[in-house]
């Protein structure tokens, strides 16, 4: 079992979700995050003062998947999120020790579904 | 002899004294009359200005409504458009708009006193009016009061456009179009109906501006939306609609209620005089009744069609009722206003869905509220008018013993104003598109116009950037 964490651009959220649906993956958690990488910041101005903003809005996907789903999911995320420009994001694949379904108590591969 | 002489002198003296007394009486009476007349003008002016201040306040209403119904990432841009629009209107209407609309001229446009409201005018003189703004000499208030009142109406028409083109229009394009709308398009059609032009002569009646203000704004907005195109992601490939949620129903509701309040200046204020109070009271009640019925009918319609009552539809319903009653408010009974409002509320719900079916993207329902119900309100005069109900000699509408005459005049008015405004606006928008560009880039639209057009966010402390 693996936990896939993907940081992508916020405007790509719909595209990534669509790509995941096409790959028949429907279970995920999405959250707002801010972060920075190679993508430069942008200049924000307010009443005559300027500031460089380097922490940019991003969106984080977390998916718990069985091993055989890792490649399809990663491919789907890349398909949805890639624009070819700096700032497209990163995907982390993390080993997942256990997964429990709250409603039934199932564990392991069945719990992931 | 001496006694006779003294008696004669006394008699002549008495004669002079009584004459002077009579003159003094006349002088006091005249002073009283002057004072009363002056007070009358004063009270009328206070009323006109107070009503105008209420209509001015509607700018807040439009701003909050639009901001609430659009996304957070575009909020600064929407607020900026709504804030700057009254400034644009103030200048354009002062420089030339007023003159084109109310100056004496030909049946299509004013020709005298065009610039800076500088034509000869001896307001507040009604009967002995001498000046070049005779079309509006029927109201007995000073010239600047008339100007200011008409200005806030022009401003309302301009701000209608900002909602329909929201979330993807360039700030500069909107500004330029608005100058032309208030400086030229609005005054020309306004001249036809309120400025003594050919539609007045044809017998068309529009009390507070369902056509002059609301459908003009609506036609200009429709032209803009067609040239602009829909927001990214609004319509899916299979033609279904992707709901783009407004970011604050609280703001939208504030907007709706402020507009409702402001309309109590818009409609009753259009008497531009207090009289004995009965007209303005009548108009206030027809205004409110239509709105109340429209809210109820739009709630029911939304509930039935969409399974749950949608607050944004209810607010649109209120506004639909307000727009619809704007033309007939002084010409119909309270009962008729209820019917007019009832129909308006249903119309707006269906219109919103119709525009989406046609893939005409209107983020706030401006077209459904102002264009569709501006037309309905204007036509309803031809159906429901009661001759002289508050003093205006409209003739009776179709349902009240009149013939088709009034209705025909209304139809011609709707078509004439519609054709002119829509085509002219289309040309202007298209020219703006070619010269300056009209729509922001795809990148900017996705990131949000706040950053793209203004370099700052509306809610920099909050995080909530899930773009769906």
Description:
The complex is a heterodimer of chains A (113) and B (468). With 113 residues, chain A is of the alpha+beta class. Chain A has a single domain, classed as Alpha-Beta Plaits (2-Layer Sandwich). Chain A contains three helices and six strands; from the N terminus they run βαββββαβα. In chain A, strands 2-5-1-6 form a four-stranded antiparallel sheet, covered by helices on one side. The longest helix of chain A has 12 residues, at 70-81. Chain A is elongated. With 468 residues, chain B is an all-alpha fold. Chain B has one domain (18-454): Ammonium transporter AmtB like domains (Ammonium transporter fold, Orthogonal Bundle). Chain B has 14 helices and no strands. Chain B has helices at 2-69, 75-102, 143-164, 171-193, 198-202, 210-228, 249-266, 278-306, 311-326, 334-357, 366-384, 405-435, 442-447, 449-454. In chain B, helix 3 (143-164) runs parallel beside helix 6, helix 4 packs antiparallel against helix 6 (210-228) and helix 8 (278-306) packs antiparallel against helix 9. The mean pLDDT of chain B is 93. The interface between A and B is medium-sized, with 14 and 14 residues.
Question: What is the helix/strand order of chain B?
Answer: HHHHHHHHHHHHHH
Tally of alpha and pi helices of chain A: 3
Predict the CATH topology of chain A. Answer: Alpha-Beta Plaits
Uncertain stretches of chain A:
none
Q: Any idea how many domains of chain B?
A: 1
**β-strand amount of chain B:** under 5%
- Count, helices of chain B: 14
Major beta sheet, strand line-up of chain A: 2-5-1-6
Radius of gyration of chain A (Å) = 17 Å
The tally of beta strands of chain A, per DSSP, is 6
Percent helix of chain B: 55-70%
CATH architecture term of chain B: Orthogonal Bundle
